[in-house]
């Protein structure tokens, strides 16, 4: 397939299972046994191999697998001025069909004025761009990741007595990061946002209310933060967002259909595409896609990155047809529902299964949309 502008018909969210040798190198680095330069050389070697795998399978969007990160969001956000790891935790009972997996990811605290000291992902992008002939995609956490879990209590009253000033500075540092990426040649950015998806879940909505937040107001706020973050993006940059209900060791943290957020999310962000989870019943039906405006692409996450079973291609094609009842099929694409390793722990499947699922994405996309060039995405807004 040869679609000129992303999102592409066959897509993926971005993170991949970490090779054992890479995890060992990161352990040795943390223990002080190897230095920064040696670790980066090892990461580079593994990223080169990963790029070759993605290209071999037929993917046009290429990522570094988040091989340089421990967690999809923390590694980025702690590099902003004014952000520290809080002593508190956001306890989550991740769920799967077999048992719960309890995990408490760190809560990030804003202890001073936010600042953008450098292009945080610029050098990572430059390396990725140098080792692929396809389109390099950068993933970064959504601005909401610095607010939802702690709320007002996680933002210093001294630094930010007025939360509007905090949100202005938050979007400003994101604008600076996206400008730096654009200057380096990046034209495909995906923000990963768990919180808009958590706001689909009645339990998480109630948890927000208990903190004194209105869930609908939060949805509007997070849509605005995303819009403002991309404010200075060049016109030819694809601006996308992935919604995730939690992805830790093949388990999830939230459930609920998109009805609670869809109309606000689709109409008030003005971005080019959403990656949405639709791999099982916990994500609800396709009815909320009726709010998708012309020019926006919806990447259907119909293939599980959590389960080892390989889906049936015909069943996936039928689900694409069901989604096309609510939004034009030319505005749809296909991907796994999430990354394969949002944290370095990874999901409970093998690299062979991971690759087979990606190969299935490419084959199905070719069957549905054709192997020849398809109409390019018309940018929203």
Quick synopsis:
The chain has 381 residues and is α/β, with parallel strands linked by helices. The chain has a single domain (20-369), classed as TIM Barrel. It has eleven helices and twelve strands.
Oligomer: single chain
Mean pLDDT: 90
Structural class: alpha/beta
**What is the general shape?**
globular
Helicity range? 25-40%
CATH topology: TIM Barrel
Provide structural commentary.
This protein has eleven helices and twelve strands. With 381 residues, the protein is an alpha/beta fold. The chain has one domain (20-369): TIM Barrel, CATH 3.20.20.210. Strands 7-8-9-10-11-12 form a six-stranded parallel β-sheet. It has a two-stranded parallel sheet with strand order 1-6. Strand 11 (297-303), helix 10 (313-323) and strand 12 form a beta-alpha-beta unit. The longest helix is centred in the N-terminal third of the chain and has 22 residues, at 36-57. It starts with 19 loop residues before the first helix and ends in a 12-residue tail after the last helix.
